[in-house]
Amino acid sequence: MAQFQLVMHSGPTPGKTFPLDGDVLTIGREASNPIAINDAEVSRKHTQLVFQGGKYIVTDLGSTNGTFVNGQRVTGQKILQPGDVISLGEQISLLYEAVQTIDPNATIVSPSARSVAPAPAPAVSTAAPVRPAAPVYAGQVPAGPLPSSTPTPAPKKGFPVGMIMVILLALCLICSCLGLLWYVDSSNLWCSWFGFLFGAACGG
Question: Which residues pair with 72 in a beta bridge?
Answer without folding.
Answer: 69
